[in-house]
Amino acid sequence: MLGFIIASWFLSPLLSGLVSVAIFLLIRRFILSKEKPGEAGLTALPFFYGFTVFVNVISIVLDGSPGKF
């Protein structure tokens, strides 16, 4: 059990870093490289909001208080 905890100290930052790099590359490719990045950013904003809400709802549903729903 202790080994899993210690492994999580290394895997969690590594995985979050990989996800951050992937998100940055997507933003750079589809928003920042456009001729008008402001408009592209405003167009993409609802998708980012929707994805954020989706992740939070899934987190609450899967790991929330058992028996409360």
Automatic annotation (TrEMBL):
Q: Where in the cell is it found?
A: Membrane
In the bilayer, the protein is annotated as: Multi-pass membrane protein
Where, by residue number, does the polypeptide cross the bilayer? 6-27, 39-62
**Keyword annotations for this protein?**
Membrane, Phosphate transport, Transmembrane, Transmembrane helix, Transport
Pfam families per record:
PHO4 (PF01384)
| GO (cellular component) term, any one | membrane
Q: Which domain of life is it from?
A: Eukaryota
Quote one Gene Ontology molecular function term: phosphate transmembrane transporter activity
Q: Which InterPro entries match?
A: Phos_transporter (IPR001204)
Does the entry feature the keyword Membrane, yes or no?
yes
Q: Which GO terms describe its biological process?
A: phosphate ion transmembrane transport
Q: Write out the similarity annotation.
A: Belongs to the inorganic phosphate transporter (PiT) (TC 2.A.20) family.
Q: Which protein is depicted?
A: Phosphate transporter
Q: What broad taxonomic lineage does this protein's source fall under?
A: Eukaryota, Metazoa, Ecdysozoa, Arthropoda, Chelicerata
